[in-house]
Design brief:
Elements lengths: L6 E4 L12 E4 L14 E7 L9 E6 L2 H11 L4 E6 L16 E12 L5 E18 L4 E7 L8 H21 L6 H7 L4 H11 L4 H9 L3 H32 L2 H19 L4 H13 L5 H15 L7 H14 L12 H11 L4 H16 L7 E5 L6 H12 L3 E5 L7 H4 L12 H9 L5 E5 L12 H8 L8 E2 L6 E2 L5 E6 L7 H5 L2 E4 L5 H19 L8 E2 L1 H10 L7 H19 L7 E2 L1 H8 L17 E8 L2 E13 L4 E4 L4 H16 L1 H4 L5 H4 E6 L13 H13 L1 E3 L3 E3 L2 E2 L5 E2 L4 H10 L4 E5 L11 H4 L3 E5 L2 H8 E5 L14
Parallel strand pairs: 3-5, 9-14, 9-15, 10-11, 11-14, 16-17, 20-21, 23-26, 26-27
Antiparallel strand pairs: 1-2, 3-8, 4-7, 5-6, 6-7, 7-8, 12-13, 18-19, 19-21, 22-28, 24-25
Amino acid sequence: MADQKNIKSFRFTKSDEDSGDLIQLVIEDDHHNDDEALPDKLGILPVRNTVLFPGVVLPITVGREKSIKLIKKAYNGDRIIGVVAQKNTETEEPGFKDIYQVGTVARILKMLVLPDGNTTVIIQGKRRFALEKPIKETPYLVASYKLLHDDEDVPKKDIAVIIQSLKEAANKVLKLNPEIPREAQVALENIENHTFLTHFLSSNVSADVADKQKLLEIDNPKKRAEKLLKYMLKDIQMLELKHEIANKVHSDIDQQQRDYYLRQQMKVLQEELGQDRPDQELEALRKKGEEKKWPEDVKKHFLKELDKIGRMNPAAAEYPVAMNYVELLVNLPWGEVTEDNFDLKNAKKVLDKDHHGLEKVKDRILEYLAVRKLKNDLKGPILCLYGPPGVGKTSLGKSIAKALGRKYARMSLGGLHDEAEIRGHRKTYIGAMPGKIIQNINRSQSSNPVFILDEIDKVSSDFRGDPSSALLEVLDPEQNSTFKDNYLEVDYDLSKVLFIATANSLDSIQPPLRDRMEIIDITGYTQEEKLEIAKRHLIPKQLKEHGLKSKDVSFQKSGINKLINDYTRESGVRNLERKIASVVRNAAKSIAMEEEYDAKITDKLVRKVLGPEVFDKEVYEDNKMPGVATGLAWTPVGGEILFIESNLSRGKGKLTLSGQLGDVMKESAMTALSYLRSNAEGLGIDYRVFEHYDLHVHVPAGAIPKDGPSAGIAMLTSLASVYTQRLIKSKLAMTGEITLRGKVLPVGGIKEKILAARRAGIKEIILCRKNEKDLETINKSYIKDLNIHFVENVQEVIDLALLSTKAKEPMEFIIPEKSA
């Protein structure tokens, strides 16, 4: 067999033994002649990821300290070592228990020391051996051994069949795998010895280390070849299946499949770049879902959606939509709540610090906290703060959240006209998203925030639905524990949310919606309250925003009162804050330009900075003529006084009303006139005056619309004064509705009206007896200087309002006599 020495063979299957397509040499030796040349004991070189077979030449990189010592010692001696595979590739310092018992005697052909300190040796397998007795483990493994011999009793006929079968299988592998060099076939055909053919193919078959080790340990050449053939046939099946799939894909590949393969390549690139693959994203979501405290039905729904995405092509149009959906599901704070701060004193301190007044709201929040402290499962109340603009309804929500220790969420409902803004869109629509309720819950990352529904009275409706009807479910404590958003598709519990709605008017809120809320009326601020708010909050805020300190600008009480009375007319403090900002900016400009300025802001300095007064102060105008009464009115920006003027002129009893009066106010004037007609004799009025004199009733400020029944007694007092020519008591104002029977009925807005009267310098006020209870809500210090009369009928009003003396120059009524 000398003609087969130095036959070159090429690696033709991919395996895990070593990297690269390295050329391997197979050299046939006369093994029996090598027995005498081998030493009695062998230095053992453990290797991982590969098995060395006799006749095969392999390069091996050596990095372990023990292995390097062995290689250097052997290379300088007889160059003979024993190569044995490791059982576990992770073991860094293997001992005899960590390696197999059968290995290959090898000769070191060449040793190369690399620049990085590692050593590469080229070794050639010689004979199989079995370990007998370990001798030592330091400085490297040394053991005694015995050589293993192949069985000689294999029939030649079987050997021929084995060679034929192995070569056919190898040729089939070469044919199916185009990556193998064609020279490998030439080398294969030149190997006739069945032992070397088996070793050569065993070294290159696609099998793991344990399977190759089994091949090395078999003594019977026939059994070894049969097992090798089994592995090769398995390779052939895998290659055929791969080839079949490749041919099928190649034949009917379309754009979608092409994109899929490109994405598969992208996966590999993403792994190399350290980016997350789609399956990694899904796994991260699944892991995050396991940590969620959500209901069982929601968990099942989430896992079902994840499985659906896992079967979906990442290139599909619905893939990002589905991913957005499951990300929302897993990001929502299911069952995650913040702990309420049950320190009621601290809560009251926080509320008082941020807002002056508003005692009703503060007391209601403290009540809620107190009950929550006693009973932990209390549902969140649904409050509606109702009042004029600028009184702090919206900002109060932030203070409540701070006092309770909760997260804060706010949704503006002004101009909202699409129901989907509340309940969300269905996922089937392009650009679908959850409603604002779920969005804000997700943003706050808490299931029990303080949720402000701002301007709930300004919700509108059109062909897209009625948002106020959608709010019925949100604001119903019996329903909102199972609120279902169209996008979310599963129930979400809103029962722990503290909803606070704000409104300027209750008239435009649907009755069913209004019925679900606890209405808390927030009236306008008094002048005293505005003064305190300016001192505590507005002035420090504006100084901070303009980069000034308290020593730079000092507001005097006269200056603040000037701003409140002559430059603003409102229930809240928004315009007052703007005017304070104007004064502060003027001071900031002077400081920046290094000009002299007056640091004390007085009423004179305010007029100098802001110019002439914008509003005339509401003051009582004393008059010396009959027919002029002072009434009290309520407006969205607070209370006001108004004057009702009546005048008579000769005519035919015509009634004229002017001053942009509404229907209700006109009816009040007609009711007052009818009462005077029917009771003229008791009031000392000549009944003929009603027929021969025209009556004109005018309410000044004609450009401002006016309406309501509260001017009834003021109308009657004005008419009674002009018909009797008796003067009306000085500094007296009144409010109340009248009936034809002469009854005085209660009206609303009493607090605002009384405060307006006080600002105007009024000393006496006439009210309905039933309005006496409304004074309980007013600070006693605000009404201590007022003399308030409570009446039940019109006669009491006339007795209190009209003086017994007539005007200095009373009107003389001329009644024409009837002709005979």
